[in-house]
């Protein structure tokens, strides 16, 4: 749906739309190499987008999801590595 990078301050804004017949389950994926100790591939975080942030039938979102400030040094439970994305 959308792809982007952080700015110099680490902020980002993503907006996407898709035409689907069935329900969608969007996920915010964050790829980074912070505190990775030279291990190959990028650390990958997956954050599910709750249904209340999905707007049906319109391109303009009715509600914006604020993920807040994330400390990417920590290792999340279920964190993976991704070499191709």
Automatic annotation (TrEMBL):
Q: Does the keyword Transport apply?
A: no
**Keywords for this protein:** Secreted, Signal
Give the chief site where it resides: secreted
UniProt cross-references to Pfam families, sorted A to Z? TTR-52 (PF01060)
Single GO cellular component term: cell surface
Q: Which domain of life is it from?
A: Eukaryota
Instruction: Reply yes or no: does the keyword Secreted apply.
Output: yes
Span of the signal peptide: none
State its location(s).
Answer: Secreted
The UniProt family comment states:
Belongs to the nematode transthyretin-like family.
What protein name does the entry list? Transthyretin-like family protein
Q: Which species is this UniProt entry from? A: Toxocara canis
């Amino acid at each position: 749906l959308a792809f982007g990078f952080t700015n110099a301050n680490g902020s980002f804004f993503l907006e996407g739309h898709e035409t689907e017949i069935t329900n969608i389950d969007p996920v915010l994926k964050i790829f980074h190499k912070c505190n990775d100790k030279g291990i190959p591939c990028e650390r990958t975080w997956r954050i599910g987008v709750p249904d209340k942030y999905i707007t049906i039938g319109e391109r303009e979102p009715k509600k914006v999801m604020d993920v807040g400030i994330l400390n990417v040094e920590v290792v999340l439970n279920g964190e993976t590595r991704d070499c191709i994305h």
